[in-house]
C-alpha cells in the first residue's frame, strides 16, 4: 500500500485503465499539450498519443455529446470537464441524452462513459466558478454520481466508473487534489452505491461527502479530544444511488444527526439525506436533523464574504452542540 | 439538381425521369417506399386523432422523396441519427412497420419497447441509433459515433438528419467544427421544409441558404431539391462517398415542404392558403406518380396496385400494434441502468422509502 495524493491516484488509475483497455480514451479541454488544468493527465499524451488523449475545442456541449455517441458504439470515453461550472454548458447532453439513452430506447444501447469534473467553492473565484451543482446530476435517474473524498476511494471508484456500463459523473474537488492517503495496490475496483462509515461513534452521526467528509472527520476528532463526544462519520461516496441503509443504520445507533454539504441548503443533497433519515429512523431520533450548508447566495469574491458563506469546521461544531443541547445530551457525551 | 453556387433550387412539380430499364425499376421501388411513408403517416394521423397514439407526433408528409433518397444513399453498415420527425426514416431504413406502429401505440413490441414513442424510434439491427426529441441533441451524438468509427479505423459512415431550425443552435456549430477538426466520416443533412414549427427560415436564420453555413467550417456542402428522390439520392451518395473514402464531413441541405402542421395537433393557421397550395403543388408523391405514368414506366392501374399493397402493409402494422400488449408494470425499473447497482431506488410513487414500522 503506497501513500499518494488524490491527484496521483487519479492519474495512475487513468493510466492503468488505458493500458488495460484500448477502448478507454480521454477527451477534454487542455488535457493533452497543457497536461490538464489540474495536471491529472500529465504525461498521458506523450505516452498514448492524440487519438487516446484528445484535446477538444472549448465546446462542452459538443465534446461531451461526442463522448456519449462514442460510448454508444462501445468505446469507453473519460471526459474531463475543467470545472463543474462548465458542465452546465453540457447539461443537455448529460441529462437529456447520456442519462436517457439506455431507458428511452428500451435498453438497446448503454452509455459507458465517465465525466470527471472538479467542484468546490472558495479560492476567491466568485459566483460562476464557485458552486457545487452536483445535485443537478444526482437528481437524474439514469446517471450515477460518485464523489470520492480519499485517494483510496478516488482509485477504487474511478476503476468502477470506467468499467461501469452507465454514464457516471465523477465529482472531484479542488481542495482534495493535494490531500494524501494510503492507496491499495492492484486492481481494486470499488462499488458505486455504497457509503462508508469512516469513523465509528455513538453520540451523533455526521453525514457528508467530498470535501465536507474531511471536515466531518476533523470535527469528529476535535469533539472527541476536547469534549469526549463520540461522533460517527458517514461518507456518502455515491450521491446516486444514495446508500440510505448505511445512513439509517448509523442514525439508529446514535439517535442524532448533522448533515454537512458544500452546496446550497434548499433542495440540496442534505435535504434528501435529512428526509431519508426522517423516513427511515424517525422513531430513533432524539433531536431534529440539522444541516450545515453554504449560505444561499451566489458566492462573492471578497474574502471576508466568501469565508462567511462557506461552511466551516466551526459551523459543524456549533450544529453538533445545538443538536445535543436540544435533548440535554452534551453532558452525556462528555461522560 | 445540386447547387453549390448559392442560387435557390428550382423545384419542378412534374419531372421526366430517364427511362432506362434499371432506372424504371429503381423509380418504381422508390415510389413504393414513398407511398409507404405517405400511407403510414396518414394512418398515423388518424390513429392519433382516435387517441390510440399519445404524446407528440411529427409526420414526414411532404418529405417522402427526401427520406427515401437519403436512405437509398447509405448502406447497411452505416449509422443513422435523426430528429423527432423519424417515422419515415425508420420504415425505409428497414424497421418492421408493425413494430414502428406498436412503438407509436406505446406497446411492448414497439421498437423501443414502448419507452420512446414517436420521437424516439431506435433499432440497433438496422443501425438507426435514435430519433431525438431535443432540437439538435443528436448532432454531438452522431459526431461521437463517427469518432468511434474513426477510432477503430472502420469504413462506416454516420448520417445525421436534422431540421432547418437546428442550424441556429450552439450544438450545430460546435459539432460541425469538431467534425472538420477531427476528420469525421459524417454527413449532416438539413431537411429544409422552410419552417421551424411556425417560424420561417428567413425569420430565424441570418443566412437562409443553410448549406452555406458549412463554409465557416471548411466543409463541403450542397443544396438539393428535396422533392426529387433521384436528386437527393445522388447528392447524398456524393456526400457519403466523400465521408467514407476521404474521412471528411459533409453538409447536405434538402429543400422540400411540409404538407401538414409541425405535429398532428398543429392546424398550421400561420400559413396562408397560397403557401399551402404552393407546397401541395410540389407534392413529391403525386409528382412521381405522374412522372411514372407520363414516362410510361407504369400505368395508373399498376400504381394503384402498388398503393393497395402498401395499404395492406399499413393495415397489418396497425393490427399488430393493436394486438401488442401494454408493457408490464413490473418492467418499470428494467432500463434505468445497464450495470446493476446497490441501493438503486425502485419505489412506485406510493411506496415508502423504508418499510413502515421497521
Structural features, described:
- With 335 residues, chain A is α/β, with parallel strands linked by helices.
- Chain A is built from 13 helices and 14 strands.
- In chain A, α2 (44-48) links the parallel β2 (24-28) and β3.
- Chain B is of the alpha/beta class.
- Chain B has one domain: Rossmann fold.
- Chain B contains 11 helices and 9 strands.
- Chain B has helices at 21-49, 64-73, 87-93, 97-104, 138-151, 170-181, 201-204, 229-246, 273-281, 284-294, 300-323; strands spanning 2-3, 79-83, 128-132, 158-163, 186-192, 195-196, 199-200, 220-225, 250-255.
- A 7-stranded mixed beta sheet of chain B has the order 1-8-9-5-4-2-3, with helices on both faces. A two-stranded antiparallel ribbon of chain B has the order 6-7.
- In chain B, α8 links the parallel β8 and β9 (250-255).
- In chain B, α1 (21-49) packs antiparallel against α10 (284-294) and α1 (21-49) packs across α11.
- The termini of chain B are far apart.
- Mean pLDDT of chain B is 93; it is low at 5-14.
- At the A-B interface, α3, α4, α5, α9 and α10 of A face β3, α5 and α6 of B.
The residue-averaged pLDDT of chain A reads 96
Q: How would you characterize the largest beta sheet of chain A?
A: 7 strands, mixed
| Overall structural domain count of chain B | 1
Low-confidence stretches of chain A: none
Multimer state: heterodimer
Physical arrangement of strands within the biggest beta sheet of chain A: 3-2-4-5-7-6-12
CATH homologous superfamily of chain B - what is it?
A: Thiamin diphosphate (ThDP)-binding fold, Pyr/PP domains
- N-to-C terminal Cα separation of chain A, in Å? 38 Å
CATH architecture grouping of the largest domain in chain A: 3-Layer(aba) Sandwich
In total, the number of strands of chain B is: 9
Q: How many structural domains are formed by the residues of chain A?
A: 2
CATH homologous superfamily of the largest domain in chain A? Answer: Thiamin diphosphate (ThDP)-binding fold, Pyr/PP domains
Along the chain, the helix and strand elements of chain A come as EHEHEHEHHEHEHEEEEHEEHEHEHHH
Question: Poorly predicted ranges of chain B (pLDDT <50, ≥5 residues)?
Answer: 5-14
**What is the second-level CATH architecture of chain B?**
3-Layer(aba) Sandwich
The count of DSSP E runs of length 2 or more, i.e. the number of strands of chain A, is: 14
General form of chain B: globular
At the first level of CATH, what is the class of chain B? Answer: Alpha Beta
Quick check: average pLDDT of chain B? 93
Strand content of chain B: 5-15%
Amino acid at each position: 500500500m503506497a501513500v499518494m495524493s488524490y491527484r496521483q491516484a487519479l492519474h495512475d488509475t487513468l493510466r492503468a485503465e488505458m493500458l488495460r483497455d484500448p477502448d478507454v480514451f480521454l477527451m477534454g479541454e487542455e488535457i493533452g499539450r497543457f497536461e490538464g488544468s489540474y495536471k491529472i493527465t500529465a504525461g498521458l499524451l506523450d505516452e498514448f498519443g492524440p487519438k487516446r488523449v484528445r484535446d477538444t475545442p472549448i465546446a462542452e456541449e459538443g465534446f461531451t455529446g461526442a463522448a456519449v455517441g462514442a460510448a454508444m458504439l462501445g468505446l469507453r470515453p473519460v471526459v474531463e470537464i475543467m470545472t463543474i461550472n462548465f458542465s452546465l454548458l453540457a447539461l443537455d447532453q448529460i441529462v437529456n441524452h447520456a442519462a436517457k439513452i439506455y431507458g428511452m430506447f428500451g435498453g438497446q444501447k448503454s452509455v459507458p462513459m465517465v465525466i470527471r469534473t472538479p467542484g468546490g467553492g472558495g479560492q476567491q473565484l466568485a459566483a460562476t466558478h464557485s458552486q457545487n451543482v452536483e445535485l443537478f446530476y444526482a437528481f437524474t435517474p439514469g446517471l450515477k454520481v460518485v464523489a470520492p473524498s480519499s485517494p483510496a476511494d478516488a482509485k477504487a471508484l474511478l476503476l468502477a466508473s470506467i468499467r461501469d456500463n452507465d454514464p457516471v459523473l465523477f465529482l472531484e474537488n479542488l481542495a482534495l487534489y493535494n490531500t494524501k492517503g494510503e492507496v491499495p495496490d492492484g486492481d481494486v475496483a470499488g462499488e458505486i452505491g455504497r457509503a462508508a462509515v469512516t469513523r465509528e461513534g455513538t453520540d451523533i452521526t455526521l453525514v457528508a461527502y467530498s470535501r465536507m467528509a474531511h471536515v466531518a472527520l476533523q470535527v469528529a476528532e476535535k469533539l472527541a479530544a476536547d469534549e469526549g463526544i463520540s461522533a460517527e462519520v458517514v461518507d456518502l461516496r455515491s450521491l446516486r444511488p444514495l446508500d440510505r441503509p448505511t445512513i439509517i443504520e448509523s442514525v439508529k445507533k446514535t439517535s442524532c444527526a448533522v448533515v454537512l454539504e458544500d452546496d446550497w441548503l434548499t433542495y440540496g443533497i442534505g435535504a434528501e439525506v435529512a428526509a431519508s433519515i426522517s423516513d427511515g429512523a424517525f422513531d430513533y431520533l432524539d433531536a431534529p436533523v440539522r444541516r450545515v450548508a453554504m449560505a444561499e447566495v451566489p458566492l462573492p469574491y471578497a474574502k471576508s464574504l466568501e469565508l462567511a458563506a462557506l461552511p466551516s469546521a466551526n459551523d459543524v461544531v456549533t450544529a453538533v452542540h445545538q443538536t445535543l443541547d436540544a435533548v440535554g445530551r452534551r453532558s452525556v457525551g462528555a461522560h | 439538381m445540386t447547387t453549390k453556387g448559392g442560387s435557390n433550387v428550382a423545384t419542378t412539380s412534374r419531372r421526366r425521369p430517364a427511362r432506362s430499364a434499371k432506372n424504371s425499376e429503381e423509380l418504381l421501388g422508390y415510389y413504393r417506399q414513398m407511398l409507404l411513408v405517405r400511407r403510414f403517416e396518414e394512418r398515423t394521423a388518424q390513429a392519433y386523432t382516435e387517441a390510440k397514439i399519445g404524446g407528440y407526433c411529427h409526420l414526414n408528409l411532404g418529405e417522402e422523396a427526401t427520406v427515401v433518397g437519403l436512405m437509398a444513399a447509405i448502406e447497411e453498415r452505416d449509422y443513422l441519427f435523426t430528429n423527432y420527425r423519424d417515422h419515415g426514416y425508420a420504415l425505409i431504413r428497414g424497421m418492421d412497420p408493425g413494430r414502428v406502429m406498436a412503438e407509436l401505440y406505446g406497446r411492448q413490441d414497439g421498437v423501443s419497447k414502448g419507452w420512446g414513442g414517436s420521437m424516439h424510434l431506435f433499432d440497433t439491427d438496422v443501425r438507426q441509433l435514435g430519433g431525438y426529441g431535443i432540437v439538435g441533441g443528436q448532432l454531438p451524438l452522431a459526431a461521437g459515433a463517427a469518432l468511434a468509427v474513426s477510432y477503430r479505423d472502420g469504413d462506416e459512415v454516420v448520417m445525421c438528419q436534422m431540421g432547418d431550425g437546428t442550424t441556429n443552435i450552439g450544438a450545430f456549430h460546435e459539432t460541425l467544427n469538431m467534425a472538420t477538426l477531427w476528420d469525421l466520416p459524417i454527413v449532416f443533412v438539413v431537411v429544409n421544409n422552410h419552417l421551424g414549427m411556425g417560424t420561417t427560415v428567413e425569420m430565424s436564420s441570418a443566412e437562409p441558404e443553410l448549406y452555406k453555413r458549412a463554409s465557416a467550417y471548411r466543409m463541403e456542402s450542397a443544396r438539393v431539391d428535396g422533392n426529387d428522390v433521384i436528386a437527393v439520392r445522388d447528392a447524398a451518395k456524393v456526400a457519403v462517398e466523400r465521408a467514407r473514402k476521404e474521412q471528411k464531413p459533409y453538409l447536405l441541405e434538402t429543400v422540400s415542404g411540409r404538407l401538414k402542421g409541425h405535429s398532428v395537433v398543429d392546424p398550421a393557421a400561420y400559413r396562408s392558403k397560397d403557401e399551402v397550395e404552393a407546397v401541395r403543388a410540389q407534392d413529391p408523391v403525386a409528382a412521381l406518380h405522374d412522372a411514372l405514368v407520363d414516362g410510361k414506366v407504369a400505368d395508373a392501374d399498376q400504381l394503384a396496385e402498388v398503393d393497395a399493397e402498401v395499404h395492406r402493409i399499413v393495415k397489418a402494422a396497425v393490427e399488430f400494434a393493436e394486438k401488442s400488449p401494454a408493457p408490464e408494470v413490473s418492467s418499470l425499473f428494467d432500463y434505468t441502468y445497464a450495470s446493476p447497482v446497490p441501493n438503486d431506488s425502485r419505489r412506485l410513487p406510493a411506496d415508502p422509502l423504508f418499510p413502515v414500522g421497521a
